[in-house]
Nicotinamide-nucleotide amidase
Amino acid sequence: MGRSDPNDDRSDPIGVGSNSDHNGSGPIRSELLADFRLSQPKSDDSDRPLDKRRCDGMEDPRTLAARVGERLARRGFLLATAESCTGGGIAEAITAVAGSSGWFDRGFVTYSNLSKQEMLGVSPTTLAAHGAVSEPIAREMAMGALTHSAAQVGVAVTGIAGPGGGSAEKPVGTVCFAWIMTTGGMEDAGLGELVVCASTRYFTGEREGIRRQAVATALAGVEEMLRGE
């Protein structure tokens, strides 16, 4: 993936069919992840950008989490998170909100490549082809969060918070996101159609500042996805 404009937010809606075996109780739906990999776009081009004003990563994460919770509760949806560089920061902001147990199902902190494979079903082939910090990996992490939970909405983040680990192609501050949502609610028997959005951002600042911006951007993307439905 080539480096894009630092302010460029891009997304890819993807429909991957339905699964009538899902009963809302959170069984592992690994067969969906295999289908999802086949459906991923070959390029990062898209036609559904997220609202940049709402994804600038500057708003307080707990304020964003509270608004996300209100929207999830109104829809009867549960949220699952899959985090790498933020190390559980998204889940921390969510669980700081009173009543979040009503709409937050679970969070995965998958810092190593092995944990991404074991806990989320991320493909070693995708890792080898694109690297851990890439939109294809973020998409597979988000899908893995759904297939290993009872959630209808998922968010994933993987990036380079620094101060080391960057490269010319992927400098420190590069963070890839993916958001995924089903068309059905908790009462539905199947997953229905899936909508997936992905984005790469280039943040500046120190390690904690980059991580905080990533947490806020992840939550802002969830809010925007729910707003658009």
